[in-house]
Write a structure and sequence with these properties.
Helix content is 86%, strand content 0%. It is built from 5 helices and no strands. Helix 3 packs antiparallel against helix 4. The two termini are 33 Å apart. This is DUF1772 domain-containing protein.
Length: 116
């Protein structure tokens, strides 16, 4: 986002709209949603068989902090940007802040999954 922030507002917004359109493809969506499904299956598996809480916490971080934030914050922001209903600077600041949350949640979730 730092590079897009250096562009004039109209150009930064256009580039982000192009990125958002390009990411909607079967490979990305399959990996993104597939990881969520694997995390949900892991939670069920640990609930049934018992085991360490670390993988459950890791899966929960991914589900809430990555998928949840994406659905609740980033996708609506992207939709507003596509509709021209949001100021680029406000969009960029809010999207970046929540993307950092997703990054931290995903990283912490991975560490917990590896430790479990």
């Amino acid at each position: 986002m730092a590079a897009l922030g250096r562009l004039p507002g109209r150009d930064g917004a256009a580039a982000m709209r192009a990125i958002n359109a390009a990411v909607l493809n079967p490979v990305f969506l399959g990996m993104f949603v597939g990881t969520g499904l694997a995390c949900a299956a892991l939670v069920v598996g640990v609930a049934v068989t018992g085991g360490s809480a670390l993988p459950v916490l890791g899966a929960a971080l991914y589900l809430a902090g990555v998928l949840g934030v994406t659905a609740a914050v980033n996708v609506p922001l992207n939709d507003a940007l596509a509709a021209g209903a949001v100021d680029w600077d406000r969009y960029r600041a809010r999207w970046t802040r929540w993307n950092h949350v997703r990054t931290l949640a995903g990283t912490a979730g991975l560490v917990l999954l590896l430790l479990g």
